[in-house]
Amino acid sequence: MSIVEINNLFFEYKDTSTEDSFSLTLNQLEIKEGYFTSLIGPNGCGKSTILKLISKILYPQKGRIKFSGVDISEIPYKEYAKLIAYVPQSTYPYFPFSVFEIVMMGRTPYLGMLSFENSIDKKIVEEAMDILEISHLKLKGINEISGGEAQRVYIARALAQKPKMILLDEPNSHLDIEHQIQIFELLAKLKREENLTILSVSHDLNLVGIFSEKVFLMNHGQLIMHGNTSEVLTEKNIEDIFNVKVKILPSGKSDLYNILINPV
Ligand SMILES: Nc1ncnc2c1ncn2[C@@H]1O[C@H](COP(=O)(O)OP(=O)(O)OP(=O)(O)O)[C@@H](O)[C@H]1O
Ligand SMILES: [Mg+2]
Fold first, then answer.
1. Which residues fall inside 5 Å of ion ligand 2, going by CB?
2. Is residue 43 in contact with ligand 1, taking CB distance under 6 Å?
3. Test site for ligand 1: of 22, 216, 241, most ligand atoms within 8 A of the Cβ
4. How far does Cα 109 stand from its chain's mean position?
5. What is the C-alpha separation between 204 and 134, in angstroms, rounded?
6. Does the beta carbon of 46 lie inside 6 Å of ligand 1?
7. Which among 22, 118, 198, 260 is most buried, taking Cβ atoms within 10 Å?
8. Closest by alpha carbon to 146, among 190, 103, 99?
9. Looking at the whole model, is its pTM more than 0.85?
10. Cβ within 8 Å of residue 61, ≥6 positions away
11. Phi-psi region of 242 (alpha: psi -120 to 50; beta: other; left: phi over 0)
């Protein structure tokens, strides 16, 4: 069953000069519920733009996006935030909130008009911080921690939202190899145990190969191919789209995290 369905979508950044304007066209795209899907493609091909369209940060000029069959333009933001959590590519904090406060922001969609967070919200926030191993940082300002720690804070905020689907834009870009694997394993576990749907943008094709079940391959604002990971992540496709010759090696045991792709 598909959780997100995109039909005949056209999007263009408006205030750009006509020469460099970027447009995105997606005739049909379906994200299956309960799957780990990766969105890959070269810099500037439109990956972050798709995540922003699905999260209602940007609006398409044409076409529609449906979540569980409902046009997302008809779902109020507060309701939508209970369904979808978005972890942006980079976050530039403008105000030095504490780690605890930022993770607590994930509970905002569940709070009433004037109500404050209750013990359930606090418990969910503590749990999310524990899972991401950031509890010891909870009183620190977001500007006083490392880039990788901040990335884990934003993932914890997304988990505290208790969404049905999580969109992650390069969640591993600042993480060391241990934390990269840890985050992907955590997502895979939430998928298995809580039927969380994951859409992750990543440039790390090894991790994509190990963890995703479905892959969308994009280039120049268009979807080139989609399907099961082994069908899309092929030597030919990678060479065609990324202009790099690669060799895909047998993965062996997945818990060994063998390198699957080596430049040749
Ligand atoms: N706010 C904006 N206004 C105008 N153009 C934009 C804006 N944001 C992005 N673009 C342009 O749209 C294109 C797609 O951007 P997008 O961020 O979706 O790429 P991406 O696939 O996520 O790339 P990367 O791998 O570098 O993160 C790029 O050419 C970019 O310069
Ligand atoms: Mg991007």
1. 47-48, 89
2. yes
3. 22
4. 19
5. 24
6. yes
7. 198
8. 99
9. yes
10. 10, 11, 12
11. alpha
Q: For the chain, what is the domain count?
A: 1
Cα radius of gyration rounded to whole Å, the chain:
19
- Which residue, 20, 46, 44, is CA-closest to 6? 46
Task: Give the E-state strand segments of the chain in sequence order.
Answer: 2-12, 23-32, 36-40, 62-67, 70-71, 84-87, 165-169, 197-201, 214-219, 222-228, 246-248, 261-263
List, in sequence order, every beta strand (DSSP E) within 117-248.
Answer: 165-169, 197-201, 214-219, 222-228, 246-248
pLDDT tens readout for residues 75-99: 999 999 999 999 988 776 668 899 9
Please give the angle made by the CA atoms of 154, 155 and 159, to the nearest 5 degrees: 120
List, for residues 17-44, the tens digit of each pLDDT value.
666 789 999 999 999 999 999 999 999 9
Which residue from 12, 47, 167, 224 has its CB within 8 A of the most atoms of ligand 1, so it is best to mutate?
47
CATH number at residue 224: 3.40.50.300
* Torsion sign over Cα 139, 148, 91, 164: negative
Residue numbers in the chain where pLDDT is lower than 70: 15-19, 92-94, 113-114, 250-260, 262, 264
Residue 4's closest CA among 48, 54, 46, 49? 54
* Pick from 111, 187, 126: nearest CA to 155: 187
Q: Is residue 119 in contact with ligand 1, taking CB distance under 6 Å?
A: no
Task: Determine whether the shortest distance from the Cβ of 59 to ligand 1 is under 6 A.
Answer: no
Q: Whose CA is nearest to atom 17 of ligand 1?
A: 48
Q: Is 221 in the pocket of ligand 1 (CB under 6 A)?
A: no
Domain that holds residue 225: 2-263
Contact of 204 with 172, CB cutoff 8 Å: yes
| Secondary structure (3-state) at 10 | strand
